[in-house]
Amino acid sequence: DIKGFAFDLDGVIADTAKFHSQAWHQTATKVGTEWTPELQEALKGVSRMDSLEMILKAGGHENDYSLAEKEALAAEKNDNYGKLIATLTPADILPGMQAFLDELRAGGYQMALASASKNAPKILKYLGLTDYFVGIVDPATLHAGKPDPEIFARAAEVMNLPADQVAGLEDSAAGIQSINGAGELSIGIGDQLSAATVKFTDTAQVSLANLRAALGE
Ligand code: G6P
Ligand code: MG
After folding, report:
1. CA distances from 171 to 103, 107, 167, 189 (A)
2. 166 beta partners
3. Where does residue 17 rank: exposed (0-12), middle (13-18), buried (19+ CB within 10 A)?
4. Phi, psi dihedral angles at 19 (to 5 degrees)
5. Which ligand 1 atom is nearest residue 172's CA?
6. Reported ipTM
7. What is the pTM of this model?
């Protein structure tokens, strides 16, 4: 039985995936990498420095920048992103997610955050959602980011639950791979997540009743 839920943040709870894309698009233009829908999708769930490496590689620029220059590019992206998220309010919680969090809390489920974003605590505060979570995995302490299972395994630890009692919610292929690798139940949100055990087309579909129905319970 599922007793806890590990949430991704960007694109699952908050409508911030578009802001990451907007800021990375600027970086791609600056380094001369063509911005494509495939690149945009592949960057979802990927850490800041890994995202920059993917953008450089996509344009064949992986050897054109020193570490210091890469750090400056990543810092500039984060500044641009920071300006975009400063406008967030509870109105930017994705459809259905406030109700789902309330339903889980009322049902006595545990909740933890498994976001690769170092901006996650700030975003939860802007959205007024901090108190729902028993813990937030700090991505700075990870050995490997998504698709590695570590972050979702750590979320189960935070909730003090074995992996088979945890469900993870994700909008990225890298994240679904991480959940599956951790031995948890993967719930994919969006239409590009064939590896997810349960699939919802959008956040408005996410509820305990729909989850039970999808699992045939
Ligand atoms: C999430 C997003 C990614 C982002 C990553 C790191 O996983 O889906 O697009 O690159 O977090 O975010 P940060 O805020 O630390 O740069
Ligand atoms: Mg996401």
Report:
1. 20, 24, 14, 5
2. 4
3. buried
4. -75, -40
5. 8
6. 0.98
7. 0.93
